[in-house]
Amino acid sequence: MTRGTRANDIAALAEGAARARRAESTASPDAMAARRAACDGLGPVVARYIEARTGDRERLSAEQLDRLDAACNDWLAVYARRLGRECDPGVPVRTAAEAVIDTHDVVAAAELLTGVDADW
């Protein structure tokens, strides 16, 4: 992946996460929406980080890493809010990636990172 493509990809992930967090400010609890936030939101952010760390020949810039961290936290906040809890976890994307690798489950990782358990 070229530097420009990667930067655009990360920017799109970060902008989508920020938009989702703003949109969720008045959302009512919905367990399936929480699951989607983890799978369809946090999952791609973590995947992009892992891809960059394991597959790309170039390191992430500080700005790119900051944007992935912000996107990670935005999606975790959306996940928690959809389960009826306010949360601003301050979790680095690296920690989220480690949790996904350890659990093999992005939803379980979101639960661990936010401290908000879902009753599926």
Automatic annotation (TrEMBL):
Entries under InterPro entries matching the protein: DUF8055
Domain of life: Archaea
Residue ranges of every copy of the DUF8055 domain listed in the record: 8-117
Official protein name in the record: DUF8055 domain-containing protein
Provenance organism: Halobaculum saliterrae
